[in-house]
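Chapter summary example.
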Amino acid sequence: MGGAGRIEGRVFLDGGWSTAAVSWEDGRISSVEPSGRDADGPLLVPGFVDLHCHGGGGADVMQAGEAVHQIARTHAAHGTAAFLATTMTAPLEEVEEALAAVARAMEKQGEDEAKILGVHLEGPFISPDQLGAQPPFAIPATVPLLERLCGLAPIRVITMAPEADPSGEVAAFLRGQGVRVQIGHTSAGFETSKAFILGNHGVTHMFNAMGGFHHRKSGCPGAALAHAEHAEIIADLHHADKGSILAARRAIPKLYAVTDATAASGMPDGAYKLGQYEVFRRDGTVRLASGGLAGSCLTMDGAFQNLVSIGLPPEEAALRTSTIAAAYVGAQDYGAIRPGARASFVAVAGDGGVQTVVHNGRMLR
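The structure predicted for these 365 residues follows.
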């Protein structure tokens, strides 16, 4: 891990921004010492935590092999301290290969890689009527199958449609394993969605792949706004616009930002792989050949800056790009600037733009 170091900036302490020196040793914060001085230095916020990340740096989780290491390096350089490697709906053998590759990658990570916290299993237990950019390999869920998949890699979050588990037996099994069960990629109506949300944990990419919201047919989005405690939202301002993000923020106490990043994140415009599909980065979006959105090219530094640009104060943007997500999956080493936490944080300007990235006590940017 990185050696000793020190940086001074403004840290959010006791309800306000205070100038402080943050020191670290052997990859962990050793002290946070307020100086009592007013200054116009950078704001120091915790390293970002991304719970929905399919790829980056030209690599895709479903490629297995060494792809996850490339993804982890790419996102660390953009301020992500920790993330969940996120799968796609695919034939089971491909899902299993991806899970095994993530498990191997977790055993030995480089200091310049974002910490792989485990897996977000997005599919194949989704509705075939709400695939979004997922390939058409949706299947029903069973306990024996999930037992097998959980044995291949630590699954921390799963996206499921109620249609794939109508009895709720599989969701109950997963909760017992400590997996966060989220509703997503579903055509379920309000009452079914409400029951699933209240019985489980969260919502996957709010507003996307769950049908539209109408004031006489509110469906899954309405149930999430009315009843969800946690939900992720893709903060690229394409999957959800300013008004949608602000509405979800007001309704859902622990709304947090994700990237839904693809291999195109951190890369120039061009063609990339997303599971079995070829997708195209252009105009700040990633799209299928048909023109539909297919994940994003977002990185978490961009998500932070977007939240600030629509009016969130930096301290709240930090909560919604790091602290809430870290707590949601029990990642106690992340999400805060405090003694004992990982020395992974970013220095940002007043407009939310990232100036410096410290990761594991090493200056990456």
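To summarize the output: The mean pLDDT is 96.
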